[in-house]
Amino acid sequence: MRDVTLTINGAPVSVAVDERTLLVQLIRDDLRLTGTHVGCDTSQCGACNVLVDGEAVKACAVLAMQAEGAEVVTVEGLAAGETLHPMQAAFREHHGLQCGFCTPGMIVAGIDMVRRLGPQLDAATVRAELEGNLCRCTGYHNIVKAIQAGALAMAGAVPGSGAVPVAAE
Amino acid sequence: MFAFAYHRPSELADALAALAASEEAKPLAGGQTLIPTLKQRLASPSDLVDLSGVTALKGITLHDDALVIGAMARHVEVATSPVVVAHLPALAALAGLIGDPAVRNRGTLGGSIANNDPSADYPAACLALAATIVTDRRELLAAAFFTGLFETALQPGEIVTAVRFPLGGEGTYEKYPNPASRYAMAGVFVWRGGDEIRVAVTGASQGGVFRWAEAEAALAAEFSPAALDGLKPEADDMIADIHGSGAYRAQLVAVMARRAVARLAAAR
């Protein structure tokens, strides 16, 4: 067992873990943040996407020890109280989900897209960028619309600063 | 996963010492292949030496005649680095085709070539660009480094520290990705500089990445897609698995090669 110390959704934590512990196991089993999902457990589906130092990673393919000293943000850390992150709000507004299992990873992927590519995302770009996220319900159409709208909404906020209120439509 | 001890040194010497301390120790780069491999219990290292803290393995530097990319440069960095985009655009484009965005945020050049997966993308670029693989103790041309399926010339405890890509000429990479894994079903990197032409093929051969000599000879006579008409690698030498037969992969190699040549010819 080793201590791993990191920041999770802004709060410092230190947890004794077996070296074999995956980051997603630390998040779900030790920290009880179950918004991050395990879909395939083989790096294909992206349901376990979280932000590590601002970048989307597949938490099923990273050891908890590799996140030592990192700032990890899960889907639970995006909203500010009752105010959804613009990307979350866009998924609700555009009905970018059905069962919702893939949604936390989709939202994290969307935020990562905006960080790398900016807020102006055409549909083809979003579809290509979603190659690492699988949805078995929606056919992706509304997910693409949600990410495009969320990206524009984020442009009104300070990038990477977490949640800001979204103007009512 | 089987149990292992985890180390994250910040100095190269400490990483090498940790690797030398156990015959069963393994370096951990981005982990995008190694962690899934460990999860499937296909490897059981005694120690994992995480190289992510070793600054000496990072960075991309432009020299007069070459671009030197640190082993721990992540795919996203190679894909978006202005210096790579400006001087080796085909290499940047190739890096942007690896896996998916989250994988590219973690996976590294050094990890990819040290693993030498027969379907990985970087080995094709290293062969076609005649890159030099720099390790902690020597330098090897890519042709000597890649020795077979998941096999390299690396000795126990030896790690890749950087890759030196010569500048000059022009190249392009065409890939047919497996729709699920994004690994190459066939990937062909075509490069030419003056009279010299190199065609490197990944994803297809049972022997891993290879130079396709017949295609190179045909293109030397006439650099056009038509020059490759009727040419295919030997189907019996290609990988045959649930994703495709040897004949299918041989056909894909031929198609990817013609597309790459067409794109290079059009760019002139």
From TrEMBL, chain A:
InterPro entries listed in its UniProt record: 2Fe-2S-bd (IPR002888), 2Fe-2S-bd_dom_sf (IPR036884), 2Fe-2S_ferredoxin-like_sf (IPR036010), 2Fe-2S_ferredoxin-type (IPR001041), Beta-grasp_dom_sf (IPR012675), Diverse_Oxidoreductases (IPR051452)
UniProt lineage: Bacteria, Pseudomonadati, Pseudomonadota, Alphaproteobacteria, Hyphomicrobiales
Organism this protein belongs to: Ancylobacter defluvii
Pfam families per the UniProt record, alphabetical: Fer2, Fer2_2
Protein name stated in the entry: 2Fe-2S ferredoxin-type domain-containing protein
PANTHER family: OXIDOREDUCTASE WITH IRON-SULFUR SUBUNIT
Domain 2Fe-2S ferredoxin-type: start-end pairs: 2-78
GO molecular function, one term: metal ion binding
Keywords: 2Fe-2S, Iron, Iron-sulfur, Metal-binding, Oxidoreductase
Domain of life, per lineage: Bacteria
TrEMBL record, chain B:
Nucleotide-binding recorded as keyword: no
Location of the FAD-binding PCMH-type domain: 1-170
Metal-binding is among the record's keywords: no
Domain of life of the organism encoding this protein: Bacteria
Entries under InterPro entries matching the protein: CO_DH_flav_C, CO_DH_flav_C_dom_sf, Diverse_Substr_Oxidored, FAD-bd_PCMH, FAD-bd_PCMH-like_sf, FAD-bd_PCMH_sub1, FAD-bd_PCMH_sub2, Mopterin_DH_FAD-bd
Record-linked SUPFAM superfamilies: CO dehydrogenase flavoprotein C-terminal domain-like, FAD-binding/transporter-associated domain-like
GO molecular function: FAD binding; oxidoreductase activity
Keywords associated with the record: FAD, Flavoprotein, Oxidoreductase
Signal peptide, first to last residue: none
Annotated SMART domains: CO_deh_flav_C (SM01092)
UniProt cross-references to PANTHER family, sorted A to Z: XANTHINE DEHYDROGENASE SUBUNIT C-RELATED (PTHR42659)
Protein name: Carbon monoxide dehydrogenase
